Amino acid sequence: MAADIWFTERQTSDVTLGLRVREVLWQEETPYQHLMVAETAAYGRLLTLDGAVQTTERDEFFYHEMIAHVPLTVHPRPRRVAVVGGGDGGVIREILRHPEVGVAHLVEIDGRVMEAGRRFFPQLSAELDNPRAEIHLVDGIQWMREQGLQDAKLDVVIVDSTDPVGPATGLFGEVFYRSVHDALGPDGVLVAQTESPMLQPHLIQQAQAAMRAVFPHVYLYLAPVPTYPSGWWSFSLASKGPRPENARAVRLPTRYWTPAIQQAAFVLPPFLARLLSQAGVAG
Amino acid sequence: MAADIWFTERQTSDVTLGLRVREVLWQEETPYQHLMVAETAAYGRLLTLDGAVQTTERDEFFYHEMIAHVPLTVHPRPRRVAVVGGGDGGVIREILRHPEVGVAHLVEIDGRVMEAGRRFFPQLSAELDNPRAEIHLVDGIQWMREQGLQDAKLDVVIVDSTDPVGPATGLFGEVFYRSVHDALGPDGVLVAQTESPMLQPHLIQQAQAAMRAVFPHVYLYLAPVPTYPSGWWSFSLASKGPRPENARAVRLPTRYWTPAIQQAAFVLPPFLARLLSQAGVAG
Q1: Which DSSP category does B181 fall into?
Q2: Is the pLDDT at B281 greater than 70, yes or no?
Q3: How far is CA B133 from CA A10, B85, B220, in A?
Q4: Chain B residue closest in CA terms to A231
Q5: How far is CA B272 from CA A56, A259, B209, in A?
Q6: Residues with pLDDT less than 70, chain A
Q7: Which end of chain A is less crowded, N or C, counting CB atoms within 10 A of the terminal residue's CB?
């Protein structure tokens, strides 16, 4: 009888997710974090960083489609896009489905994540060698600060970060959002993953308040991501002008995202609307 | 240092959810199933049947509001309602928020579930003694068959069942749905919980195909339920006539459900639309 091997994520101090593991394929301490790749029975290949699920083969499409296509259709004509984090390549793959995008910068601090993507997740990393993808293995906070000094502005910035501990902490604050604002052109749109509405509501409040200090329009939208804590995830969208209700109804070959799913994702339940108004970030 | 106690649900053979337990409050073998009540750190009071999460204090509102208010607003004037299962009282509580409902039958096979609701979940069981609630501690399949012979027809039937193993198996099949059809009046609406779109898609296909064999209009809608497998749940709605797009825009003091959330819940992602069309149950 085969050994019973489980990966367990301590999603909070009081909640765990367990996934049966067929084989641990890779483990290493990178300069920034612990990285593991395993083959799971339920979700196929799994990538973890510091013990937290980043992505799985079977449910990655919810997250990658929703973090990419929403800002790219809210912006009227996205040509220059940047992703901070997301070294596995999943967000770049979705961005490059939009033919009007001329360049997609991938700004990943940890080159080992990209290496794991290329080696173990061919469906995610497929577009990393696309000539429209420009890869920068540097600190996203510093890269963004330098972009603000450039003449060529970005249209969309996507923050595909890990949780706000370790290397990603600075990516959830007002100082970073100000750099993003300065790097974006006049119709600029920012989207960041902002954790679980059920388990990290305080973090949503913080991130939304910090965005609102910098951007005139700030929104929250929601999607299922089964292997993330609570299975339900939030994304915060900040805009210099364009509004979600005017998003372009683009057609793409997707599994979760559609223009109708996108409109539905911005409908907030009363308990979350109250949470945002308590933080002074409603409407 | 206190002992480290965890409740773990084997959601499938390959996925677990773990919840830290402060105290196990009750355990018993009822005539039908194993019942446990515990105080958890993350979600407050927890009720399990045969080791599966039924409800928790902190996330019960997603499920109870979505299984009750959707059919009750799709029906043009619901006066007579029946719930099969749901002995904890959560669905009855939501139903009785609709003043036009004259009687809400609760048909629960296991009286011990209701007892646990009354004793440990006052927020769920609050309306069980409401004079508009009629409690029947009998088999729902047989009760429904007898209803079909009555002159007084039901307007809405809600199947708040456990998973399709053990006592609930018969509640997912065509024979039972035919009894429901016969028990419903001309505008009758049925809603049943039909498990996780991520982990039990075959079950959704089966239930929808069985409903379609009996009812002219069948729909699927979705909601987050963080402590259920994958955190994302499906409900199947079958109707003799009324359609979700014409639902009444009722105002109620809720935490998740609103008329706008309800409309959004019927928007299906492409992978699920394909799943239904494969089962010949689309549109």
Answers
A1: H
A2: no
A3: 42, 14, 28
A4: B231
A5: 19, 15, 14
A6: 280-283
A7: N
Using the beta-carbon criterion (under 8 Å), do A42 and B269 form an inter-chain contact?
no
The ipTM value here is: 0.95
pLDDT at A281 (0 to 100): 60
Question: Positive or negative CA dihedral for B42, B43, B48, B53?
Answer: negative
**Residue B230 at interface with chain A, using a CB cutoff of 8 Å:** yes
Is residue B282 scored above 80 in pLDDT? no
Contact yes or no for B260 and A267 at CB 8 A = yes
Cα separations in angstroms, A200 against A194, A217, B22: 8, 22, 21
pTM above 0.90, yes or no: yes
| Mean pLDDT value of segment B49-74 | 98
Catalytic residue among A160, A163, A182, A187: A160
Kindly report, as residue ranges, where domains of CATH 3.40.50.150 are found in chain A: 60-278
Topology (CATH level 3) of domain A6-55: Spermidine Synthase; Chain: A, domain 2 (2.30.140)
- What's the rounded Cα separation, in Å, for the pair B160 and B165? 14
Chosen for mutation from A267, A268, A272 (greatest number of chain B CBs closer than 10 Å) is A267
Looking at the complex, does the CB of residue B249 fall below 8 Å from at least one CB of chain A? Answer: no
pLDDT at position B2: 75
- The CATH number assigned to the domain with range B6-56 reads 2.30.140.10
- State the count of interchain CB pairs (< 8 A) between A and B: 116
Minimum distance, in Å, between the CA of residue A132 and any CA atom of chain B: 28
**Can you state the angle between helices B140-147 and B174-183, rounded to 10 degrees?**
40
A176–chain B nearest CA distance, Å: 31
Contact criterion met (CB < 8 Å) for A232 and B255: no
CB proximity A230 to B under 8 Å: yes
Instruction: Mark yes or no for CB contact A260/B254 under 8 Å.
Output: no
On average, the pLDDT of chain B sits at 95
User: From the DSSP assignment, how many helices (H) and strands (E) are in chain B?
Assistant: 9, 12
Number of residues that make up chain A: 283
Residue from A51, A81, A87 nearest A69 by CA: A81
Q: Is the confidence at residue B45, as pLDDT, over 70?
A: yes
Domain with CATH 2.30.140.10 in chain A: 6-55
What is the rounded average pLDDT of the residues B243-259? 97
Question: Quick check: helix, strand or coil at residue B273?
Answer: helix
Among B183, B187, B116, smallest CA distance to B146 is for B183
The answer to whether B35 touches B26, Cβ cutoff 8 Å, is: yes
Interface test with B, best of A19, A63, A230 (most B CBs within 10 A): A230
- For A226, which of B8, B18, B232 is closest by C-beta distance? B232
Residues within 8 A of A (CB atoms), B 36-95 only: 40-42, 59, 61
Q: pLDDT tens digit string along B169-221? A: 889 899 999 999 999 999 999 999 999 999 999 999 999 999 999 999 999 99
Pick the CATH number of B60-278 from 3.40.50.150, 3.90.550.10, 3.80.10.10, 3.40.1160.10: 3.40.50.150
Q: What is the rounded average pLDDT of the residues B60-78?
A: 98
